[in-house]
Amino acid sequence: MKYLSINGSIYISCTLNRYFLLKLSLWLLPLLIAGCREKTRPAEVAFGVNREEHRVDVIMDGKLFTSYLCSPHQEKPFLFPVMSAGGEVITRGYPLEPRAMDRVDHPHHVGIWFNYGAVNGFDFWNNSDAVPPERKAGYGRIRHIETLSTEVVETTGILIVKTLWTAPDNDDSEHLLSEKKEYRFSGDKNSRTIDHISTLTALSRDVLFSDSKEGLFAIRLERAFEFPSESAVKYLDEQGNLVEEYELYNSGVTGRYRNSEGIGGLDCWGKRARWVRLDGEKNGRQIAVIIFDHPGNPGFPAYWMSRGYGLFAINNLGQKIYSEGREELNLMLRKGETAVFKHRLMIVDGFPSDEAVERFYEEFIGLY
Predict the structure, then answer these.
(1) CA–CA gap between residue 58 and residue 36 (Å, rounded)
(2) What does residue 292 show for φ and ψ, rounded to 5 degrees?
(3) Model confidence over 65-116: pLDDT tens digits?
(4) CA distances from 278 to 67, 309, 311 (A)
(5) How far is CA 85 from the centre of its chain?
(6) Are the C-beta atoms of 140 and 119 separated by less than 8 Å?
(7) What is the pLDDT of residue 39?
């Protein structure tokens, strides 16, 4: 049926059987509801504590998301491995579980960790089992002391542990800092979220965090999230053997950085930003890894150590090298004083828009 509107436009209308429309809506409604629930349903979180193996597994929807590893033989606790919601491993395997095409460098880059390169003159960042015993006097070690709690509150899994920052890393070690470390794990069908809250307290004496580029909250990602290399690299072959010669191998390397200020690529390194995202593709899946700073952190907005070889770190305490000497931050904690650092790391299946990332950021800072 044709008819004229009040402004003279011609419209075409047709009449459908009301009974047919009712049946169609009754059929579609459950599908629409189920689809909405599938997209928004929070992941079910559970913990598995294995004291003999010094490990706390974080399970989401019945599958391993990550594990908190805290063996006394480690130079620091860390989360490893780390999985996307779609089941892809995003962390480099080397040195714990080497995989084909892993870069063989920086053995202290393991999973997700939190430490610093200059604490009362001791280097916590670069310490690993690759450092020979005769050089350990210049390094610090973070020792896991106790798992305080593992609980699930509504849709969030909360793991709280106590650690001690000790130095030097030998028989003469002293307790410099007590750390209450809180992890909050959550997610849904398409994402995984880790909130990391570290409360550091100076113990027996004043503690100085001297300005250093080596810090602070970091993840070492697997090959797919690297940038194509313009020079040769050392890596493992398909059999997991070390390729002794430095060879160029960029197959499957898809990393792309962008920050909250609109800067992209490797230019994100050494820039201040509220958040930085690293997009990559693995096995045909688009995955975004995003780290968020918090306005309550010292040095906000922080400088970023967003490297092309898989190191993705935010450094709230280092300024001098990033600003070419124009700025410097030396954080002093007097005996008994406390500093708190809050960071969020999100792993999102697909590439969210920057507007969506801004909403994630506002949600994060609104919680704490």
Answers:
(1) 26
(2) -120, 135
(3) 999 999 999 999 999 999 999 999 999 999 999 998 899 999 999 999 999 9
(4) 22, 12, 11
(5) 14
(6) yes
(7) 54
Distance CA 207, CA 332 (A): 6
* Secondary structure E strands in the chain: 2-4, 10-12, 45-50, 55-60, 63-69, 78-82, 112-116, 141-153, 156-167, 174-188, 191-202, 207-209, 215-220, 256-259, 275-282, 285-292, 303-306, 311-315, 331-333, 338-349
Q: What is the model's pLDDT at position 24?
A: 46
Rounded to two decimals, the pTM is: 0.89
What's the mean pLDDT in 191-201?
A: 98
pLDDT digits (tens, 9 = 90+) for 265-319: 999 999 999 999 999 999 999 999 999 999 999 999 999 999 999 999 999 999 9
Q: Which two tokens stand for residue 167?
A: 């130095």
pLDDT at 40: 73
Pick among 3.30.310, 2.70.98, 2.60.40, 1.10.8: CATH of 17-367: 2.70.98
Return the pLDDT at 27: 55
> ∠ CA(122), CA(123), CA(129), 5° rounding?
120
Nearest one of 232, 223, 228 to 250, comparing CA atoms: 228
d(CA 63, CA 54): 19
In this structure, the chain runs to a length of 368
- Tell me how far apart the 2 most distant CA atoms of the chain are, in Å: 93
Domain ranges for the chain, please list them. Answer: 17-367
